[in-house]
Amino acid sequence: MKKLLKYGAYLLVAVVFFTSCKSKEASSTTGWNYNDTKWGGFEKLNYEGQITGPNLVPIEGGTFPMGLTQEDVMFDWNNVPRRITVSSFYMDETEVSNIDYREYTYWVGRVYGETYPEVYRKAVPDTMVWYDDLSYNEPMVNTYFRHPSFDNYPVVGVSWVQASEYCLWRTDRVNEMLLIKRGILNENTEQKDDDSFNTGSYLVGQYEGNVRKNLKDLRTGEERPARFEDGIMLPEYRLPTEAEWEYAALALRGNQSAEGDENYTDRRNYPWNGQTVRYQKHDKYQGQMLANFKKDKGDYMGIAGKLNDNAAVTAEVRSFLPNDFGLYNMAGNVNEWVFDVYRPLTSQTLRDADNHDLNPVRGNKFKRVETDEDGRPVEKDSLGRIKYRYIQDDELATRDNIRRGDALNYRDGDKESEAYYDYEAHTLVSDKARVYKGGSWADRAFWLSPGARRFKDEDEADRTLGFRCAMSRMGGSATNDKPSGNQFKVKQRRVDRRYK
Predict the structure, then answer these.
(1) Under CATH, to which class is 56-182+232-364+407-472 assigned?
(2) Is pTM, for the whole model, over 0.85?
(3) 441: region left, alpha or beta (phi > 0 left; psi from -120 to 50 alpha)
(4) Taking burial as the number of CB atoms within 10 A of a residue's CB, which of 53, 199, 223, 366 is the most buried?
């Protein structure tokens, strides 16, 4: 009996050893085991794909004709049609609301308010945008941003600079939340000044936080903080590019032919089909307005008893029908900031170029982490953020993909283009001019077209202007379950790998 038990124990150990060996995935390049401390600890994740961040909607990319497809009644000719491709990305389902933005200003005041009150003041929207020489808007000045009745209405009075800062803050809060949910960090409401979570500072080891349990370091057998390679944290929230915004607004996916081929059946002037701004199907919604805009001079919402869009100024962020990507108010309600610097000739530049038709954008000023003499990131700033510096042209002399660190004026405002913008003398276009799109509660229907574009200085705000965030997608273009590239499940010809 003892011999039998001893034999059984040996057999169990052998099975466990054999199973553990078989479970180790090995490198197809070197044969060394992944995720094995004994073999160096190089890690390979069984990664399920990028998660969808709060309030984001996945937008499958593709090719489309970018530009104004209706009559250019303003005769600006600043967005002539050209075919481009946009990579898959994510976009906010709604415009950023007052309650969303108040959470941001509350956090900024709590963390920085005592030492750096100017940070809080710079974050607060300009509520004076509601004043008007010949209109009684004082109630909106005092209540629109702060009164709970307007919690779910789009925030306005926010400049492009403020919107960009909000995106950075949101990135940090979402990534901190993901680390807390993973059990790596504890909640920490005592953060102050430079001792506050910042994604960049955490990743370079300049912020530790209230650690609950770090990840196992397979190289040393001890513990380590999370890395970006662990796939826990998300890429940054940011303003969408103009191309991304226009593509998402049109949502031409809804017009794919019934055969599911590579054709759209119809173009669109608006984020919906048809040449009208009213609901067309023959049901109880027939004739209702599809967006919040100004119908005619002095007509912002119709007559009492039959309000046509039911909103004199802004409407709630989940009003009206979402488009075929599931996005609300991509026409009307409030205009929306996009990332791009405005130049009137950008569309012609892109139309005439062969190598700028994938994810086109104007506004690149390339930067890198600021490092010391030993190549290590310099100490974070007083707000806890990692420091960056802009790349200089002489650093790019040996590169063939870019030759200038500042591409704002590339082929539209530089010497090669022979275009010159004499700001405030002959034009309002400058390096601070940023594009906004979508139309608002105070605009006529022409501006509801995704191809229409206007601009405003990045440090200015307006009562008709808000924003929503976007995020880049990592990995496959379709879904997490489907890798990029066509996958053909066919029997492959056996390859003889012996030397001959």
Answers:
(1) alpha beta
(2) yes
(3) alpha
(4) 199
